[in-house]
Amino acid sequence: MMNFDKHGILEMSKLEFGADRPKAANPIKINDVSLRDGHQSLFATRGRTEDMLPVAEMIDNAGYNAVETWGGATFDTMHRFLGEDPWERLRTLKKVMPKTPLSMLLRGQNVVGYRNYADDVVKAFVQRSIDNGMDIFRCFDALNDYRNFETAAQVIKDNDKHFQGVVCYTLNQPRLGGDVYNMDYYLNKVKELVAFGVDSICIKDMAGLIAPYDIYNMVREIKKITDIPLNLHTHFTSGMGDLAIFKAIEAGIDIVDTCIGPYAYRTSHAAVEPMIMSLLGTNRDSGMDINKINAISDEMEKYIPKYKHLDNNPKYATTDINVLLHQTPGGMLSNLVNQLKAMDALDKLEDVFKMLPKVRKDLGNIPLVTPTSQIVGVQTVNNVLFDSYEGEYANITQEVKDLCYGLYGKTTEPINAEVQKKALKEYPRGEEPITARPGSILEPEMNNVKDKFKDLAKDIDDEVLCALYPITGKRFLKWKYGQEEVPDDVKAKTMAEVEKEQELIAKALSGELTAGKKGNSQMTEMEVIVDGEKFNVAIPNGKAMARPKRKKKESKEQSSENALLAPIPGMIIEFKKQNGDTVKAGEHVVVLEAMKMMNNFEAHRDGVISGIKYDSGDSVAKGDLLFIIE
Q1: pLDDT tens per residue across span 289-299
Q2: Helix (H), strand (E) at residue 123
Q3: What is the rounded CA–CA span in Å between residue 596 and residue 594?
Q4: How far is the CA of 394 from the CAs of 364, 375, 433, 625, in angstroms?
Q5: What is the pTM of this model?
Q6: What pLDDT, in 10s, does the model give residues 219-235?
Q7: Nearest partner of 590 among 573, 610, 611, 605, judged by Cα
Q8: At residue 170, what are phi and psi to the nearest 5 degrees?
Q9: Cα–chain-centroid distance for residue 115?
Q10: Sheet of strand 619-620, all strands in order from the earlier edge strand to the far edge
């Protein structure tokens, strides 16, 4: 046998292909994240439990170190858009996957929401997660402020579960370095986690920014500090994902995250299949059976057609190096694009890109990960659309105010003093920012939640859901307990329905349609027969492919200077005033959620409120009438 060079700690060994091949000297451990981050990255987190069950047992028998099944955006999306109980998914998957530890992504004091919750909410959520079957908690804080771990970590430790501490990876330039996010920054964060007492450490690269040689050097340096197991989580967005994983493996990383083929690449993760094959004949061979993975992949492919319409990448390219150039994570970018589209302002996207680094700098040069990516992104859009001069901050979101007060924790660098002063003007908790752990000053919430939802919530799991998401949680429980009909757009599609749609599209494209009357100048009605069923459909005329703009309702109230129209689309959270109430200019009247961020809109004059027609939970479009002041 020839002698080959070592690649870091990786050494060549006898090449064998069988599933029963000898165990490698230092096998890499692999986590699967298909059932959480895979579909969150590719299909807007719309993966349904029913499509996970056919592969769950197969994944359980595949030899993974752990399987990520929960947390992140799943809790929100399931109850809001899928009509599924998030707790039931956890219980169901645990029942069919008893061998492999289940893991979840926990946002520290943010739990699985977008703000810091009181300690009693955090404790209740973590305990119920454990009781329902969770084993490993990957816990991160968007500011890398580890004080926000303390409450969750105590519950996890008390239950003898695995606590994985996270360092969120971000940059201010295309590669590791600079004055802030450099090697020293990350090594110091690792030292903080070691002192904290974590069971393992994850380098979480949520945007796919980390370069192969940067992670190689980082792993080598971390291994000089600690022998606590080290996990790399990186996305493929920039195209460097699998390159970075390989260099990390050569450097001595213990665990890596991957997806199974159909859920891999683009803004998701590197695929596990080439990883398994590439490491054969080395001392880091995973020991996994490629045939088992192929069988899972084939089964997954059967259900992918249900989700193809959710593909968030309009480009043909599978990589986007721009993520390194504009420092905008993929999910954040899609949010920005969607928000601008809804406001008929997509032409402002370049202005948003130019403004974003400035807003990020003003807000303390914070990492861009949920929820800080939304906080910075939405505020940037507001500045571009509503400011009369750069730096005005005419419409500051509630979350930016909370960030300036210290409710999210300590920012990487100090917040711009002028922005902070403006944000905290008449702030209810006070105009002086705090330096204490945010959770220590937040009033308990669970007793109020139990009282408020006592006629709807049936158990502690329902109560925790409503504590995290009071508006959409209440709506979901009404669906769950039959008090309201589940909307059609929330119900699951069957494969039969998907196949009919695909056949219909194929027939339309091939011209196998009978033309009917013209519905309007832009649409032509067609009749098509699929499997004996007759469908009347409307398709765009060849000369009128543009989507018609939503027409605003014409009314005297809307043209009146007394009226306040919605400047942005979103969901009504609450009206702080009601019809007939007296109001003074500057008082908050309505809270509108846009892209998960809260926007307070004020009275623009003194007078009496009228014209309120929306309820909490209703959606409004830009230009819809919110209220009138007479």
Answers
A1: 999 999 999 99
A2: helix 119-131
A3: 5
A4: 19, 15, 20, 21
A5: 0.87
A6: 999 999 999 999 999 99
A7: 573
A8: -150, 165
A9: 14
A10: 597-602, 588-594, 570-575, 619-620
